[in-house]
Design brief:
Blueprint: H1 3-18, E1 26-38, E2 44-47, E3 71-72, E4 75-76, E5 79-83, E6 88-94, E7 106-113, E8 120-124, E9 137-146, E10 152-160, E11 166-174, E12 180-187, E13 197-203, E14 207-217, H2 230-237, E15 243-246, H3 250-253, E16 276-277, E17 283-284, H4 290-299, E18 303-308, H5 326-340, H6 346-353, E19 364-367, H7 379-393, E20 398-401, E21 412-419, H8 421-427, E22 440-448, H9 457-472, E23 477-482, E24 486-488, E25 501-503, E26 508-510, H10 512-522, E27 527-535, E28 540-547, E29 551-558, E30 564-571, E31 577-586, E32 605-612, E33 615-620, E34 624-631
Parallel strand pairs: 1-30, 2-15, 2-23, 15-18, 18-19, 19-20, 20-21, 21-22, 22-23, 24-25
Antiparallel strand pairs: 1-27, 3-4, 5-8, 6-7, 7-14, 8-13, 9-12, 9-14, 10-11, 10-13, 16-17, 25-26, 27-28, 28-29, 29-34, 30-33, 31-32, 31-34
Helix pairs in contact: 5-6, 5-7, 8-9, 9-10
Bound molecules: alpha-L-arabinofuranose (AHR).
Amino acid sequence: MNLRRTHLLPAVLVAASAVVHAQAPANLTVDLSHPKAAVSPMLYGLMTEEINYAYDGGLYAELIRNRTFRSDWTGILNWFVVEKGPATAKITLDSKTGPSSALTNSLKLEITRADAANPAGLLNEGYWGMAVRPNNTFVGSFFAKADKDSPLPVRIQLVADQSGKVLADTSVSVAGTAWTQYKFTLHAGTAAASAQNHLEMTLDRPATLWLQLVSLFPPTYHDRANGNRADLMEKLAAMRPSFLRFPGGNYLEGNTIATRFDWKKMIGPLVDRPTHPGTWTYHSTDGMGLLEFLNWCEDLKMQPLLAVYGGYSLGGEVVKPGPDLVPYVQEALDEIEYVTGPADSKWGAVRAKDGHPAPFPLHYVEVGNEDNFDKAKTYDGRYAQFYKAIKAKYPNLEIIATMPISGMKPDVLDDHYYKREQGMFDLAKHYDTVDRNGPKIFVGEWATREGSPTPNFGSALGDAAFLTGLERNSDLVVMSAYAPLLVNVNPGGMQWTSDLIGYDALSSYGSPSYYTQVMFASCLGDHIADASLTGGGERFFYSATSTAGSKACLKLVNASSTPQTVSLQLKGLGAGAHTAQVQTLRANTTWATNSITDPTRIVPVRSKLTVNGEALQHTLPPYTVEVVEIPLR
Ligand code: AHR
């Protein structure tokens, strides 16, 4: 072995690494007095589906896991027997009795021995625990019937997993042999917030009881019944989304036609919703049904962007265009009427009965999802059939296609991009050269996929670069939405890596990619400014927009590991000093990230910058995303 050479090598490397490679200076000229085109006010929105326990075990605030008692060979999932002292009990699935035609089975609880000191019953483990916070009030309900008419007191308690401490306690008297719904509330004391809790339902005597649809909700966003988790809704609100694309994604299509998003089975009382297998390995409670999506839109002041089932399911089943497709087209027309119809229309009346007499606004309907995967190549015909029928009844709706259509120009085309960081840098210029005579573009799903469960800072840089391209071209790109939006970070919670917002039962956090979007949406502007760039490194990206008489918005991205100087000419800004508001997101490495245990390591930092006259010399540190808002007055 040549020792001399092996010793020399590190010295050479050190010498080489000491030379910091400087990025070529960038010259960015922005003409604020000549806006090029309008920025789409709907550029930023949300895309959502049931993936990664996004609704069940996520946004949908239900605490009980498997409230409708599905079972496998191990027993009734997520439910366990409680036997204190010598008490004895058994739980089984009774397929012969249930409270509705949608829920035709139930859990049968048989207690053969129990007393006040030694109760017996069952417990639910929740979605990786149940969050209990000091002084929370929980709203619960269940359907039950007994084998006798005499009243049975059912004790309901939230219990700390480790200490066994009872955190909240109540009792409900179940009376009679007919299915009845019982409601209760639980008030938590002052114990510290924790997710390591479960729910117990016990009796103090031998008895037989059937249960179905056991539900428990914590306080929800805007106090909605059957509502959403407040912390997640607040994070979404901070993104200022203008629309919500729902219900998918693959979840819309289902693995089979029978397991598609069959919206008519997902409205009305929960007891009338049969539930269904989702496409992402787990079963959906369907508590997040059509009206709940619309309420979510209303709460965050978003427009619904309704994706209707288009006749293709993931497993390959296709409904041929023509007569076979007619019922599915009708299903979509009915769905649109449920959303937009007056309260005296057939489906508008159903919506009113469900609790929302006022119609919802709707401008965009998407037919299907990623129909390029349809091996039978039937989408041209299916899209055209939906288009004709929807336009005939709703001429003002814009109909989004999931792939190019031969023989016709769709109103809007949905493009999807999932790439590594470099791929997104390449895509940042993609729309600069796309034909303006083609359909408008909806980037309905996109993400830089580096980092798990949530994207790391390299992804945030890829995202920021890509978003500058969307903003510069938002005359063409009318809407965009990152996907997937949500992930439960508990073991087994994730089916798709790199998801925007992570959470467990108790808390949630935004990834660096999340903060990039919060920053970008905070200063959208309403016009694309005329701008040109010379010089600058390969990994420098920008966009410039303005709102006349109000503000200029600059997005500056240095995705390289060395500083980037930028000479800015801001024509039309005028003389004098302008105090710009700056938001900076940066990290030391592309692998740096936020996590459930370190949720705010990378967050935007605000500062001020004085622009004297129309010129500014500015240096972006390595790995930096900046949003600069300059007042125009
Ligand atoms: O976002 C995850 C999946 O990616 C969506 O369900 C699907 O539309 C796409 O393939």
